[in-house]
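Today's session is about reading a structure prediction critically. Students often jump straight to the picture, but the first step is always the sequence itself: look for stretches that repeat, for charged clusters, for runs of hydrophobic residues. Only then move on to the predicted structure, which in these notes is written as discrete structure tokens rather than atom positions. Here is the chain we will use throughout the hour.
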Amino acid sequence: MKIIEKNIAKPFLKWAGGKSQLISEIDKAIQKNKNDKFTYIEPFVGGGAVLFWILENFQNLDKIVINDINADLITTYKTIKNNVLDIIKTLKIWETEYHVFKELPNERKEYYYKKRELFNSRTADDVTHSALLIFLNRTCFNGLYRVNSNNGFNVPIGSYKTPMICDEENLKAVNKALQKVEILNGDFSETIKLATNNTIFYLDPPYKPLNETSSFNSYSKDEFNDNEQIRLKEFCDKIDLLGHQWILSNSDVKGKNPHDNFFDDLYQKYTIFRVKARRNINANGEKRGELNELLIINYKKQLQYI
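Below is the predicted structure for this chain, in token form.
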């Protein structure tokens, strides 16, 4: 008898700050059993590592809501949900064409920058625009998503020889997983309207930079600065007052400066854990490595971290 392996959905984009490495710690923080029913809301979905883990491990959810301020990203989520076969068809063609130019660097560069120009024009239909985001993510420098103040994607071409541009199996798995997900594009504060009596929020905002050169929070044309971090904390207070559970991750600025108490002061009434993580996206390879990140929760639970 042939055993058919289940194709589990995983992030379809490489995303700075992706949470695959923190899932075991997030798992410990969630006070739910695998068969429990509850509403899950993720106001900053990003690459969706936690979302796809939640969908795989909690099968009886009442409602799943994801949101992001990045319109290009949310268009791609929605288009994968509603029209994945056309995205796959487009990406297969582009993958073949891109690989033809493997030994022709000038032609490959021209191909890449024409795709980037079309993406930034934002004139293509949703299928093409979504495929462009995936293509650029798979072929740009270090898989980094970054835009300037005019919302222009400005990452140069990467050096990958034969990147997998069309991961057909995973895109189909993501399509299937997203059928039960409500997808929003707006400010994180709007997501509170979707909460029910039994809701868990996971908040993964653009991280506060550890220094001037380490900022990877240019995911949209609007900067997520300290005022936004404070506004987010006030949102967490509101969630808490309504009786919802929340888990928040962010950078540990004390790791860089022991006297920087920004988050320790801001979230002093809540429980703060420092957990080990790795930074894998940095122009300087020597600056990638293990460091602490924060996991903050608004409810009491004894967590044992390695």
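Discussion point for the tutorial: The longest helix spans residues 71-100.
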